[in-house]
Request: fold
Amino acid sequence: MQSKNPLDIKTLVKEMINEIQDGKLADENGKLPSEQKLMTYYSVSRYALRQALAQLGDMGVIYQAQGVGSFIRPERHEKVLNLQNNIGITEEMARPGRTIKTIDASHRIVSVAEADFLPKNNELAQEVQLIEINRLRTLDDEPYLSEKSYFLQSVIQEIPEESMYDSVFNYFEENKNIKIGFIDKVISSEPLSEPGASFFKLAIGAPTLVVRDDTFLSSGKLLAFSKICYDYRKAELFMFKKTY
Reply:
């Protein structure tokens, strides 16, 4: 294994996920190299590596067998979305042969009073300004999800159009030095409305799987809240539970 340039923890996690998915990191039994070999390969400290391994464990990518080492978890079905990932839908679904694209996106400035929905524990004043984003996204060129998100304009003054067609959160973290602290998710089902019905080619009122996200900064301040509607015929969501 040839050494790489030093990586920060977030980049290290992404790099390890990519190499695990490409089949480059583990042996034929799914076992990762020793900590010392991984530290040398990625040019990182033991602390950084262990933080990355812990995140990969929390995301369900690997598991650690005490006294034996770290192993890749058995591969899930290719269209299953891990709700516990912290890398975003674009990166999560970007496995070999999988492509997620935004085919339509729009944005406008609205007030809290004009928003179609609000975060679960809403403490926002009615006049607070929000950036509303609407996106339609495909998976391998097939309709996959309809998304509506609201971002606090006091935190994010603007969102470039090109970022709406890529990963919005990557733009924040790379260009605005914004650090995501945690995301609260609520899963539900509800009748489908427009534009999802036309996009999914389903009747208005058909069921849709809904994931509501409230995203907070590392300071605990609300950054954004969103509602993602999935085509129920295609969406599969994955979570796992550790036992201690």
